[in-house]
Amino acid sequence: MQLSDRITQLTGDGSDGWDVFYRSRQMVADGEPVIELTIGEHDVRTDPSILEAMHKAALGGHTGYAMVPGIKSLREAVASRIQKRTGVPTTYENVLISAGGQAGLFAAHTAVCNPGDRALYLDPYYTTYPSTIRGTAAVPVVVHTHAEDAFQPRAEDIDAESEGATSLLINSPNNPTGTVYSRQTLDGIADVCKRHDLWLISDEVYDTQVWEGDHVSPRALPDMAERTIVVSSMSKSHAMTGSRIGWICAPKEVINRLIDLATNTTYGVAGFIQDATEFALSQGAELEDKVAEPFRRRRLLAKEILAQQNTVGLIPAQGAMYLMLDIRATGLSGEEFANKLLDTHMIAVMPGESFGTAAAGHIRVAMTIDDERFAAALNTLCEFAKDIAETT
Q1: Peptide bond preceding 153: is omega within 30 degrees of 0, i.e. cis?
Q2: Integer Cα distance of 369 and 42 in angstroms
Q3: What's residue 13's pLDDT?
Q4: Most buried among 124, 150, 240, 375, using CB within 10 Å?
Q5: How far apart are CA 234 and CA 89, in angstroms?
Q6: 297 and 189 in one domain?
Q7: Chain segment 294-311, per-residue pLDDT in tens
């Protein structure tokens, strides 16, 4: 008896780069006072008004099977939000409600990739990207971005890997770098997609967390709506990470096929979760801004602290809830630095190498603890880096 190659080869070979995180979590479990700046989990949880709407819907009986594509009124609410934010005509027929953004990414690749197809993604990347692609039996093909470009992708680098490829996965605002792709960058990506007939899968879960510039959905670019699949969710915009609800926005014929997939996999999302999501969206930008505000504030705080020293460099933090810090002046890899920082100061950060190779010599810091402790931890990190740099 054997397991399938698809499941046994899902994560590839070797370490997944998250050893520091696993070690810090074990230290926390053992009662040690670790300051965690690792994963993108809000320190302020789901707004009570959303939980009240969820509770009311559950008590009201919306606990049975819900419509597999999503409740029509919620699909309409999502479509309205997308059209308002992007200017692209969008109806409920362009929307499928998914069990979070992760399920949406898997479904999107399943929709467009045949087994063995080359599916492109950018490095640095959110940790599940290559495994998600492998899960669909496609072949993940990495395209590197560069620290000297603030990790803005180069169209020529994507073009060089695009011959015979089927899809390209992008993420802006970006996790882990905090980079918001410029219009010039997106125009270059769009040109490559059209030239090589690629499907563009756009992960836009951080679209409400933009601190500099503007978020441009590539679906809004000329002739791109027909070849773009957008994945988003309520996790980051509304601090609903555990509710596991998101959506896919795509051409109608793609959505129709994805409804078939959902029927045979998730069989939809709980009705009371959908009702709470519809309520949350009805609160508009005010609630989204409330959820985003701590990260906006802490980013400014971080910029002030980092400006007072010259050992740790800051990749322009244009969006999302993370800082990508350049610690190459210490002579250490991101993984070495993160382990030493955890051992000596009980501050846990993510090595840049956890997200691929392009961010080697960097660390990712999640801005997910209260302002006072965040500032203290960042000051300690900078002093630690300075001490190492001065002794090497």
Answers
A1: no
A2: 8
A3: 67
A4: 124
A5: 21
A6: no
A7: 999 999 999 999 999 999
**Last residue within a domain, chosen from 283, 304, 334:** 283
- Report the CATH number at residue 25: 3.90.1150.10
For residue 263 the two structure tokens come to 């029927």
| Per-residue pLDDT at 17 | 67
**Same domain, yes or no: 167 and 267:** yes
Q: What are φ and ψ of residue 72, in 5° steps?
A: -55, -40
Selected residue with higher pLDDT from 17 and 98: 98
Q: How confident is the model at residue 392 (pLDDT cuts 50, 70, 90)?
A: confident
Chain segment 307-357, per-residue pLDDT in tens: 999 999 999 999 999 999 999 999 999 999 999 999 999 999 999 999 999
Per DSSP, helices labelled H in the chain are 5-8, 19-29, 48-59, 72-86, 100-112, 129-135, 155-161, 183-196, 252-263, 271-282, 284-306, 334-345, 371-391
Query: Containing domain of residue 177, as a range?
Result: 48-283
Instruction: Report helix, strand or coil for 123.
Output: strand
Pair 142, 76 in one domain: yes
249-283 core/surface letters (b: 16 or more CB in 10 A; e: else): bbeeebbeebbebbeeebebbbbbbbbbbbbbbee
Query: DSSP character for 223?
Result: T
CA dist list (Å): 308 to 148, 278, 377: 22, 44, 15
66-to-62, 72, 107, 274, 378 alpha-carbon distances in Å: 8, 10, 19, 9, 46
Q: pTM of the full predicted structure?
A: 0.96
Tokens representing residue 387 in the block: 């001490």
Instruction: Give the H/E segment covering residue 351.
Output: strand 350-351
CB–CB of 161/143 below 8 Å? yes
Do 251 and 133 share a structural domain?
yes
First to last CA, the chain: 54
